């Protein structure tokens, strides 16, 4: 007797726990592989899954086994020319033309590397592990502008289409039971029994009289209770729906970049990598992200992504123009109570001399009070320029939401990014 | 769909499978199997996806198991190899349980499903039920319950003592898993209900018993040093995990229970390791025989047979030793050919067979095969039944590899002088005792520092491999005190010593 069972719908991924434990155990290896991947990959596929290679010996599970040496006999199939007593040199690497039980040591020696794939999610998890969104706060409920309708029990008032029939009838039934008292009901029942008994008995005038009396009495009593309506306004129940404000989980990310003559394509490339990291990072934390690209030389312009990274347009450098434009855009389109605002600025540090003071003024007065986080990266290997020094003062004033780092080489982008977004121990900063 | 025997219409003609078709094939195969007298557990045939097959693969083929990273590693490896197309998944997994659970993969054609049913549900299944090793060492009706118990117990331990603590312990147990089996003594059959009931009382008992051992032996220290040091254990103990479970001084009761679980699982798989050739040979022989019978009856089509034979012959193909595909002797080939050969010897014996196998030549082949299946393991099966003719067909030859000589020597080939030697060597190759180093608990310094000494009884002068020190670290974790391991030649000479924590290593030889 056989039972045939279709298990295809059963839980899949039974091995997930074991897989997770394996990944956890070799976290260091995987992290290293992830970081290498970020250095080597082109920007467009940085967020795909990745291949991780671990030296076999690191993950071996040791067992007692025989080492080389001693005398052993091995049987092989497929003899062609050997006869008993033949001798020949030991073949290189392992005994006899593909050693018979090579598989016995698939842990231990053997192949030297263990390679496997991790998924995109796992890749990103490892990439962003230990990072925290700077001061990510769910926007205050009172400022929330979007609502969600949720069921919230039942009410006794409402519009007809929300009438809940089962609940209403149940209430009516309960009311009817509650408003007639038990005794009356029992009396009526007793009288009825009496009446039936009499009707069975032999007819006599006395009996008829009694029957009439009983009927009268029952009718009277029933009248009292049948006055109760079957369904009363009081019984009606309506499904209750409430509107619940949803905290904002939207973010806008401003990419601000200098495209003046001093910015070479390789510097722009580095800047791009940095922006992409930030985008991926935000993507994991917010449902909805908008990206605004602001490029500037002597004056600033909001552009699309393609133009932002690839169009060739150069000139002098006035950073404040970009900051002013950013502030304008925030005021016009992204009210801070609805949006978590992030700004990433990349530049080679060059600025027109008199402009840096204006920059810090716009930042402290118009931009920083509204943003969650402002990250500035200076991509240069020369000495710091005046913008950097100006920004250092800004950092003093807004140290919890303003961060700056210098990048000199493409390898540094990821470490710098990590440093900017490192987990901090203090709680989230409440921005009203 | 019921096949009308008079008309002999094939059960199916297409390649797609459906549940009614699987049922129809199963019914017919069961009928034929019963005609041949195969005695099986009831079957539970489960259709699963390839993803589920990978899951099953990586928990050592069991439908459930406790969690451990090493299963994750296996899963990752399987997944990787499969996605690269480097390996096909096995067509089937079959579990020695009652009812006997067999997995069919969704992707297979109906021919493959029928092949798997014949192979697993009637071949392996009857082997599990009949072979003496399985009958002695495993309890098919209890294993699923026991694994469930084990999984829950280990999960509880993880909750109480932390995942990492449990993982460390399991790591250590796994390294010694091969030494957690009784090779000769029969263990008590395990049942999950009993396990649960007795688990607590056992914890208390062991703990008390243990204290007795250490209490009574330690204080006597100064008294009679003159007499010969008593040995503990009095006789060497082959089951190292068992010894630790019962005697390690520092383990908590839950740790002993976990060791016991690993031991029980190891014991359950022990017969499978010893009967691979026979078990696969038996299953291949029967899928071949059963499906041919269906073909003779006209229940399957020519196309079905072509597809079946194609996959059958790739399963039982033996690449020669110098082929790039060679990776040892294929147990399917050896087992299948031996089974067919036994049938041939019974049915059409030649003079040579009458000389070599006077008992079975000309006997009833069904009875002879059944007897062989029930009463042998790989080692004894080969020693008893490998015929000169098969050795010639497979062109077997033996190579002696003596590390003290610069060359390899062919010391036997498939000829009159070589048959017996070949057969003995091949049989020895399947002797687990030769494959795994023979290591036993030799002594505990009960009165002194509680150091544990193991002895490695060397076979043909083969030394221990390079991971020995790693294994000793795990053993040290379990035992809690110093651990020594000595390699001893048959003359009683100690040739090598290992210690954990490492001491001055003394090279004796």
UniProtKB/TrEMBL annotation, chain A:
<dbReference type="Pfam" id="PF04285">
    <property type="entry name" value="DUF444"/>
</dbReference>
<comment type="similarity">
    <text>Belongs to the UPF0229 family.</text>
</comment>
<protein>
    <recommendedName>
        <fullName>UPF0229 protein SAMN05421647_104322</fullName>
    </recommendedName>
</protein>
<dbReference type="InterPro" id="IPR036465">
    <property type="entry name" value="vWFA_dom_sf"/>
</dbReference>
<dbReference type="InterPro" id="IPR006698">
    <property type="entry name" value="UPF0229"/>
</dbReference>
<feature type="region of interest" description="Disordered">
    <location>
        <begin position="85"/>
        <end position="111"/>
    </location>
</feature>
TrEMBL record, chain B:
<dbReference type="InterPro" id="IPR007390">
    <property type="entry name" value="Spore_V_R"/>
</dbReference>
<dbReference type="InterPro" id="IPR057270">
    <property type="entry name" value="Ycgb-like"/>
</dbReference>
<dbReference type="InterPro" id="IPR056174">
    <property type="entry name" value="SpoVR_N"/>
</dbReference>
<dbReference type="Pfam" id="PF24755">
    <property type="entry name" value="SpoVR_C"/>
</dbReference>
<protein>
    <submittedName>
        <fullName>Stage V sporulation protein SpoVR/YcgB, involved in spore cortex formation</fullName>
    </submittedName>
</protein>
<feature type="domain" description="SpoVR-like C-terminal">
    <location>
        <begin position="437"/>
        <end position="489"/>
    </location>
</feature>
<dbReference type="Pfam" id="PF04293">
    <property type="entry name" value="SpoVR"/>
</dbReference>
<feature type="domain" description="SpoVR protein-like N-terminal">
    <location>
        <begin position="16"/>
        <end position="434"/>
    </location>
</feature>
<dbReference type="InterPro" id="IPR057008">
    <property type="entry name" value="SpoVR-like_C"/>
</dbReference>
């Amino acid at each position: 007797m056989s039972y045939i069972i279709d298990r295809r719908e059963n839980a899949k991924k039974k091995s997930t726990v074991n897989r997770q434990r394996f990944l956890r155990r070799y976290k260091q290896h995987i992290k290293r592989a992830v970081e290498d991947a970020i250095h080597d990959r082109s920007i467009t596929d940085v967020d795909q899954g990745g291949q991780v290679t671990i030296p076999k010996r690191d993950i071996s599970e040791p067992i007692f086994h025989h080492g080389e040496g001693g005398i052993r006999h091995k049987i092989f199939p497929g003899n062609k020319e050997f006869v008993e007593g033949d001798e020949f040199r030991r073949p290189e690497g392992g005994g006899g033309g593909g050693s018979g039980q090579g598989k016995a040591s698939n842990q231990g020696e053997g192949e030297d590397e263990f390679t496997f794939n991790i998924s995109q999610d796992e890749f990103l998890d490892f990439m962003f592990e230990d990072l925290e969104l700077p001061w990510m706060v769910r926007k205050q409920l009172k400022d929330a502008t979007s609502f969600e309708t949720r069921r919230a029990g039942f009410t006794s008032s409402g519009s007809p289409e929300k009438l809940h029939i089962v609940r209403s009838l149940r209430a009516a039934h309960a009311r009817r039971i509650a408003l007639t008292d038990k005794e009356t009901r029992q009396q009526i029942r007793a009288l009825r029994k009496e009446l039936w008994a009499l009707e069975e008995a032999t007819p006599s005038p006395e009996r008829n009289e009694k029957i009439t009396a009983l009927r009268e009495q029952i009718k009277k009593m029933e009248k009292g209770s049948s006055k109760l309506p079957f369904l009363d306004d009081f019984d009606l129940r309506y499904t209750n729906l409430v509107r619940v404000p949803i905290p904002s989980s939207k973010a806008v990310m401003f990419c601000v970049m200098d495209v003046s003559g001093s910015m070479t394509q390789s510097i722009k490339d580095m800047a791009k990598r940095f922006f992409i990291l930030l985008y991926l990072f935000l993507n994991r934390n917010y449902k909805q992200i908008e990206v605004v690209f602001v490029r500037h030389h002597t004056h600033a312009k909001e552009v699309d992504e393609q133009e932002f990274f690839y169009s060739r347009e150069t000139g002098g450098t006035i950073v404040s123009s970009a900051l002013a434009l950013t502030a304008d855009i925030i005021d016009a389109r992204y009210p801070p109570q609805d949006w978590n605002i992030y700004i990433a600025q990349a530049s080679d540090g060059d600025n027109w001399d008199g402009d840096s003071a204006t920059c810090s003024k716009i930042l402290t007065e118009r931009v920083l009070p509204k943003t969650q986080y402002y990250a500035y990266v200076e991509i240069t290997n020369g000495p710091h320029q005046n913008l950097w020094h100006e920004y250092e003062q800004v950092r003093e004033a807004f140290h919890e939401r303003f961060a700056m780092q210098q990048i000199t080489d493409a390898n540094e982008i990821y470490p710098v990014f990590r440093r900017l977004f490192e987990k901090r121990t203090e709680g989230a900063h409440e921005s009203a | 769909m019921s096949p009308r025997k008079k008309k002999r219409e094939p059960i199916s003609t297409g390649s797609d499978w459906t549940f009614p078709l699987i049922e129809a094939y199963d019914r017919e195969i069961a009928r034929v199997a019963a005609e041949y007298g195969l005695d099986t557990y009831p079957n539970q045939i489960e259709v699963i996806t390839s993803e589920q097959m990978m899951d099953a693969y990586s928990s050592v083929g069991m439908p459930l198991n406790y969690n451990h990273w090493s299963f994750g590693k296996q899963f990752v490896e399987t997944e990787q190899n499969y996605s690269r197309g480097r390996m096909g998944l096995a067509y089937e997994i079959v579990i020695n349980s009652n009812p006997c659970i067999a997995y069919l993969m969704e992707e297979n054609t109906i021919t493959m499903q029928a092949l798997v049913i014949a192979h697993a549900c009637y071949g392996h299944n009857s082997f599990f039920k009949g072979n003496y090793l399985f009958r002695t060492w495993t309890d098919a009706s209890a294993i699923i319950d026991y694994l469930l118990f084990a999984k829950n117990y280990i999960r509880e331990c993880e909750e109480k003592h932390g995942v990492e603590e449990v993982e460390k312990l399991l790591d250590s147990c796994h390294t010694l898993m091969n030494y957690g089996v009784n090779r000769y003594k029969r263990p008590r059959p395990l049942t999950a209900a009993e396990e649960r009931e007795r688990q607590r009382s056992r914890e208390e008992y062991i703990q008390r018993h243990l204290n007795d051992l250490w209490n009574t032996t330690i204080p006597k220290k100064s008294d009679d040093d003159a007499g010969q040091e008593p040995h503990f254990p009095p006789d060497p103990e082959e089951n190292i995990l068992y010894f630790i479970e019962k005697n390690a001084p520092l383990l908590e009761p839950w740790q002993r229970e976990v060791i016991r679980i690993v031991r029980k699982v190891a014991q359950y798989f022990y017969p499978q390791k010893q009967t691979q050739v026979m078990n696969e040979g038996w299953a291949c022989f029967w899928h071949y025989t059963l499906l041919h019978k269906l073909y003779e009856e006209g229940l399957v089509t020519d196309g079905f047979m072509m597809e079946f034979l194609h996959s059958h012959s790739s399963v039982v193909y033996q690449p020669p030793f110098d082929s790039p595909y060679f990776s040892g002797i294929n147990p399917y080939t050896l087992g299948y050919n031996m089974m067919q050969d036994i049938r041939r010897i019974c049915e059409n014996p030649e003079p040579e067979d009458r000389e070599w196998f006077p008992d079975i030549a000309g006997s009833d082949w069904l009875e002879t095969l059944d007897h062989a299946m029930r009463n042998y393991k790989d080692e004894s099966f080969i020693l008893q039944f490998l015929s000169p003719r098969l050795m010639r067909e497979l062109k077997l030859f033996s190579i002696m590899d003596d590390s003290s000589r610069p060359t390899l020597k062919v010391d036997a080939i498939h000829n009159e002088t070589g048959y017996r030697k070949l057969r003995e060597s091949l049989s020895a190759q399947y002797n687990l005792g030769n494959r795994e180093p023979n290591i036993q608990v030799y002594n505990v310094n009960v009165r002194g520092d509680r150091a544990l000494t193991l002895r490695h009884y060397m076979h043909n002068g083969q030394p221990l491999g390079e991971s020995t020190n790693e294994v000793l670290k795990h053993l040290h974790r379990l035992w809690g005190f110093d651990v020594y391991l000595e390699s001893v030649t048959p003359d009683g000479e100690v040739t090598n010593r290992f210690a954990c924590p490492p001491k001055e290593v003394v090279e004796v030889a």
